[in-house]
Amino acid sequence: MERNSGNGKPLKRHHKKVCMFCADRAETIDYKDTAKLKKCLTERAKILPRRVTGTCAYHQRELTKAVKRARFVALLPYSAD
């Protein structure tokens, strides 16, 4: 018997997101790699949460540090205006 969501549609199965930094076997996240850092920012230059990006807790902390360093040396914007 197939389960449904109550409105006649079957439930969607979500696959677990894989950390993009673990998949690349990156030991550290380079703050100068702005292309990779921009993938983890919104259009308003906010850091995306783990549940959206799929990064692990360790790399999310490293990502936050790298984004803040890149902002400090003006490689990334603090806000999008």
Automatic annotation (TrEMBL):
Transmembrane segments: none annotated. The keyword Hydrolase does not apply. InterPro entries: Ribosomal_bS18, Ribosomal_bS18_sf. Keywords: Ribonucleoprotein, Ribosomal protein, RNA-binding, rRNA-binding. GO terms for biological process: translation. Coiled coil: none annotated. Pfam families: Ribosomal_S18 (PF01084). One of its GO terms (cellular component) is cytosolic small ribosomal subunit. One of its GO terms (molecular function) is structural constituent of ribosome. Belongs to the bacterial ribosomal protein bS18 family. Part of the 30S ribosomal subunit. Forms a tight heterodimer with protein bS6. Binds as a heterodimer with protein bS6 to the central domain of the 16S rRNA, where it helps stabilize the platform of the 30S subunit. This is Small ribosomal subunit protein bS18. It comes from Candidatus Faeciplasma pullistercoris.
